Amino acid sequence: MRIAELSRQAGVPVATIKYYLREGLLHAGERTSPNQARYDDTHLHRLRLVRAMVQVGGLSIAKVREVLGALDDPERSEHRAMGAMSAALTPRHFEHDDKIAYEQARAFLKRNKWPVRTKLPAFQALVDVLAAARDVGHDRFIDHLDRYVDACMTMAEADVEYAFMAKTRDTSFENVVIGTVLGDAVVAAVRRLAQAEVSGRTLGEVKDEDEPEPDGPDCVENEWDGD
């Protein structure tokens, strides 16, 4: 297919495709003339993968390149490739030099009998969050971590199952990327929906959209609806 058809099927502008080609996120097409190339389903597939990482996952081009590098490295084991992609997908926070937050994060891992891997980007991200909480006077935020463990373990098991249920190594790695990028996005969305549900239930303001709006001056706007 020509680049215009690739653009139409992928829903990505031609200019963006050319940018991805220059940045090495998309492999070159087969040259049919000095100014034209032919593309196939592998380009369409990779383009959709890149679009998911950029548009849904909010990753930078540099991050996408890093993830694709791990995805395409034939020397990495599945476990190491998953670790590399997890590291690439972990947001980089400001690295706090906070010894209390550092020890809190270590204690959290030990308490849950997880290996203490302080060099993992996720560990530093946790330290940064705990340090930021302490900076704004929320020292007790650490108490909430243990309540997250069961939910996160269930999600992690689902992620790994989704990733490695594939029949080929390449598909497994791609599942890791998609499962992590889209999984992060869906967890954030479902968490917001759950917060709206629990808040409404707690305050007695639960109402479906198809229920009639109350009339009169006593009607209070539902901030969760974004109106």
TrEMBL record:
InterPro entries per the UniProt record, alphabetical: DNA-bd_dom_put_sf, MerR-type_HTH_dom, MerR_fam
PROSITE patterns from the UniProt entry: HTH_MERR_2 (PS50937)
HTH merR-type domain: residues covered: 1-70
Keywords: DNA-binding
Gene3D superfamilies in the cross-refs: 1.10.1660.10
TM region(s), chain numbering: none
Domain of life: Bacteria
Single annotated GO MF: DNA-binding transcription factor activity
Sequence ranges of Acidic residues compositional bias: 207-227
Chain positions covered by the region annotation Disordered: 202-227
One Pfam assignment: MerR_1
PANTHER family with a match to the protein in the record: HTH-TYPE TRANSCRIPTIONAL REGULATOR ADHR (PTHR30204:SF98), REDOX-CYCLING DRUG-SENSING TRANSCRIPTIONAL ACTIVATOR SOXR (PTHR30204)
Protein's UniProt name: DNA-binding transcriptional MerR regulator
Species name: Saccharothrix violaceirubra
